[in-house]
């Protein structure tokens, strides 16, 4: 895991949340697991813009912070599945709110992106 050079503020709830959930795909990964995509290959198909390496790296970080648990099946080929822990489930209302916010503003944000790309 990347070690930051700037000290963290343990008194700031937003910093704590970003420490755990920061990373482009972590909320999407938690959402995917909640929707039943348990294996990394399934998550990659669901979140096709993220590389398998990044998904695996962020799954490992989510596991370190006890947001997900990993179950390894003793079979060949190796089978691994991820599940939300109670802590991981506790963030779902926030992820749902983020999803609703994005859906409601999709057209506006798309238009802004297009305008910004026209300027660049």
Automatic annotation (TrEMBL):
Q: What is the lineage of its organism?
A: Bacteria, Pseudomonadati, Bacteroidota, Chitinophagia, Chitinophagales
Q: Where is the HTH hxlR-type domain?
A: 12-110
- Respond yes or no to whether keyword Transcription regulation is given for this record: yes
| Protein name stated in the entry | DNA-binding transcriptional regulator, HxlR family
Q: Does the keyword Transcription regulation apply?
A: yes
Q: Which GO terms describe its molecular function?
A: DNA binding
Taxonomically, which superkingdom? Bacteria
Organism, by scientific name, is Chitinophaga niabensis
- Residue runs in coiled coils: none
Q: Which UniProt keywords apply?
A: DNA-binding, Transcription, Transcription regulation
Transmembrane residue ranges: none
